[in-house]
Amino acid sequence: MGLVVLGLGLATLGAQEAVAPAVSPLRVDLKIGTGIENREPVGVAETFGEGMTQLVGWTYVRGATEPTEITHVWSCDGKEMMSVSLQVKSSSYRTWSRKNVSGMRGMWTIEVKDVSGKILAKKEVLIAAETK
User: Fold this and answer.
1) Which of 61, 87, 98, 130 could link 49 by a cystine bridge, Cβ 3.0 to 4.6 Å?
2) pLDDT tens digits for range 27-40
3) Which residues contact 70 (CB under 8 A, 6 or more apart)?
4) Is the pLDDT assigned to residue 109 strictly greater than 70?
């Protein structure tokens, strides 16, 4: 009888493992700024004036066990504006994308997604009317 119970216990464990959500091995740091110097973001802020012409989404990815891909999804006020696929070529890798934002005020969001579409990081910045 002990063998039957053990067999059922193993079957239950197997079923639970199959339902458990996959955890991405990737760890991501995300910053939004105005440019890149020496592979690092510059002009990082949470609010930019309406005169801003370009934003840069900078991502530092760690933990890739093989070359993979991430996607930067740029949105303004909830509307997707651009999606950029970026290669991650090693276990510690920096990459970035640029978005022209001339004349586009609003709440900008960038999401970093893995190849399965899971959101690994998300950051928001505001482009607002300049105050004098």
Assistant:
1) 130
2) 999 999 999 999 99
3) 26, 28, 59, 61, 85, 86, 88, 95, 112, 113, 114, 115, 120
4) yes
